[in-house]
């Protein structure tokens, strides 16, 4: 007997929060005859939140007002993941622990698909995450190149459970016109707030929730709440001029203008070797110069390092006691060594 309290809740939506027509191909063997059914029908995603106890949930093939008074329901065939399961207009999805998810289709007598529902199982109030890994503080890592309203969020799949995005929820109050899409890599999304004004002060945080699923129809949600000013990360600065005494660079081309309203602050280091050593500058002869930038008005992320190796020309007269100073003097975007 199913537990009437399970599923605890359920909701229906379409993939990525929009309506899509899906081209479905069903193949199999019936009475020793192979068949392929080609149909175009809307696929609905049904999320069932469960607590691990036994339960069931009823699916309906056709609305009651669309059924005829004859025995049409007897001709309806239900299939789960392509396997025939039952007959009739309704079907009971059995819920056992985290099982019960799958592709449920109902067919007419001529095998036309009348309804297609993808059932995803979401476990209630569980702290265990199975699909994504948490390499740092958060499952989702978000960043923005500037204040245009566009940002990107990425994640790391679990080594043994690579899934895919089921749908995305996003919101910002009181205003916001968001569009989000999954990148080709499958492990990141790109979002754009078309109503965002870069000159306005942010008053409400952006709330992004990514729902991901496995091939076993297990669904998990991962959320992040932030201001753009908290995740903004400028692109690399461009170094224009280099010699033994001066390094000149410019703002990233993707950064907002005017620069007087969106100022950046810069950090420079003289190092030996690659810029991975920039955090601990050495006091020996300079081999490279590293430059990075961040928003001067917010405690946000630094850009990646831009670096240039210095070609030092030696002369007998000057090289005996000449050393490049470890301290630098910065005047706007010019570094004098």
Automatic annotation (TrEMBL):
PROSITE patterns referenced in this protein's UniProt entry, alphabetically: IG_LIKE
Superkingdom of the organism of origin: Eukaryota
Keywords: Cytokine, Disulfide bond, Glycoprotein, Immunoglobulin domain, Secreted, Signal
Gene Ontology CC: extracellular space
UniProt subcellular location: Secreted
InterPro entries linked to this entry: FN3_sf, Ig-like_dom, Ig-like_fold, IL-12, IL-12_beta, IL-12_beta_cen-dom
Pfam families in the cross-refs: IL12p40_C (PF10420)
MF annotations from Gene Ontology: cytokine activity; cytokine receptor activity
Coiled coil: none
Keyword Cell cycle part of the UniProt annotation: no
All residue ranges annotated as the Ig-like domain in the record: 42-106
Family statement drawn from the similarity comment of this UniProt entry: Belongs to the IL-12B family.
Subunit structure: Heterodimer with IL12A; disulfide-linked. The heterodimer is known as interleukin IL-12.
Protein name per UniProt: Interleukin-12 subunit beta
Organism: Nothobranchius furzeri
Gene name of this polypeptide: IL12B
